[in-house]
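In the laboratory, one determines a bound structure by crystallizing the protein with its ligand and collecting diffraction data. In a computational setting the workflow is compressed into a single prediction: the sequence and the ligand go in, and a structural description comes out. We illustrate the idea with 2-acetamido-2-deoxy-beta-D-glucopyranose.
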Amino acid sequence: MNLIWNYISFLIHCINFLVVAVSEKNNTFNSNHEGQKLFKVYMNSEKDVQALKRIEEKCQDCIIQWTDYFAQNTKVILHVKEDSVNEVRDDLLKHNLTHEMLKDSYLDVVKKERNPLRSPQHDEFGYNYAKHNGFGAIRSLLIGLTNKYKRISRLEIVECTIEIRPIYAVHISNDWSNTKPIIMIECGIHAREWASVEACIYFISVLLKQKTENIKRIMDQYDFVILPLLNPDGYVYSMSKSRFWRKNRHCDKQYEMCDLNCVGIDLNRNFDINFCEDQSPQCAATYCGSKPFSEKETQAVRNILKRLQKRLFAFFDIHSYGAMWMFPYAKSMEIPRNYEEMKRLSEIAVEAIKKVNGSEYRVGPAARVVYTASGSSMDYAFDVINVKYAFAIELREANINPLGFIMHEEEIQPLLEETWTGLEACILAMNPYK
Ligand SMILES: *[C@@H]1O[C@H](CO)[C@@H](O)[C@H](O)[C@H]1NC(C)=O
Ligand SMILES: *[C@@H]1O[C@H](CO)[C@@H](O)[C@H](O)[C@H]1NC(C)=O
Ligand SMILES: *[C@@H]1O[C@H](CO)[C@@H](O)[C@H](O)[C@H]1NC(C)=O
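The predicted complex, in C-alpha cell form:
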C-alpha cells in the first residue's frame, strides 16, 4: 500500500523525474576546479567583518563561495578562483586580516572528504550511514525503511522541486491514533550542510528501530514528522558542482541575469516572517527571493506545518555548522514566550552532548548567538504556527582538522550518535501539556 501510494504521489508531483535522473549520474567534481584554493579567515573584530565585506564587494568574481558567518569571533572559509588567488591574498594582507591559505587545493579537500572505501557493515538499502550519500541512495533508503517498518511509518512526497526531485516527509507513529503531540524535524534546508541531512536520516532510523527503552517511551508519547532533505536540488549541486553551495537552484526570473551565484534562493530567508528585512542582493548566498513562499521547498514546509498545526508542538531545524543549540528569535533581539523553558531544554541537550565526548555547544536565542536573520523556518513555526518549542541547531564541526562544512566520513558516525543523545535528552525533558 505504502509503495503504491508512494508511486502514485510520485507521478502526481514529479512526473518528469526520469529526465532529471539521467543528468544526475555524474557525482564527481571535475578538473575545472584545479587551482582553486581555500582560505581560512578569522574574524577577530567587527572591523574585520567590515573589511571582509569590502573585499567581497571589490571582487565579486574572485570568490566562488564563502561560509556565512560574517560575524565576530568566527572563522570564514573562502573558496577562491584560480586566477584570483593572489589578488585575494593581497587584499587580506592589506586589511590585516588573520588568515591562512590551505596547503591542499579545493579539489583535494573535496575529494578527500569522501573516502572511496566502503564499510559494508553500515549499508542498508544501498545507503551507508558512515558515508556521504548521493540523492539516489537517500531515496532508496527512505523507501526501503518505510516499507520495512510500514506499520509505524509512511513516506510522503510533499512537493516536487523545480529540478523535479521529490521533497520527502517521513511520518512516524506507533499507533496512528492521530491524537499524540507531533514533533517535526527539518534538515538540509541549506545545500552544503550535509551533516544535517545525515542527522535526520539517522534519527529516522533510530526511531523506527526502537532499540532502547528511552526511544520506546518517546514513541509512546509522540508522533514524528521528519523532512530529511528539504533542498535536494541544492544538495545534488553541492555534491557534484560546488561544495559550498547554500541556496536552492531556482532562477528568479524577475532579474535578467541568473548565472553563477545569482541562481537560487536562500530557503531559510523565504518564510513569511519579517520577510526580507535583511535585504541581501540576488547574487548573495542569503538572497530571500522575490516574495514570501516563492519556493516549492518553503511551500512544502508551510503546507505540512499548517496541516499538522493542531497537534504540532515542537519544531527542530537542523543545520551545520557552529555547535549551537538555538531558539527564537532569529529575526530580532526580542525575548520570546517560553524563553525559560526553551533555554532549560537546550541546556539539557547540550549537557547530554558534552557527556558523550566533551563537545561544547552554545545556547541561546539565534539573533543573540549568531546574527539576526529574517524569514527563517524556526521563527515562522514559532510565531505563525504557534508551536510551543522551536529550535535551530547548528551541529559541531569535525574533531580532526575542523573545516566548516567539510566532514571526513570517519567522523560522521560519532557526530550523529552524540547529536541523537542530545535530542533524546531534550525530548524526554519536554512537557507538551504544561
Ligand atoms: C564524470 O566527470 C568526470 C570528471 O569530469 C569524468 O572524468 C567522467 O568521465 C564523468 N562520468 C560520466 C559518467 O559522465
Ligand atoms: C594594518 O596594520 C598596519 C601596521 O600595524 C597599519 O599601518 C595599517 O594601517 C593597517 N591597515 C588597515 C587597513 O587596518
Ligand atoms: C572525542 O574527542 C576527541 C577530542 O576532540 C577526538 O580526538 C576524538 O576523536 C573524539 N572521539 C570520537 C569517537 O569522536
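The first strand starts at residue 37 and ends at 43. Keep in mind that any predicted model is a hypothesis to be tested, not a measurement.
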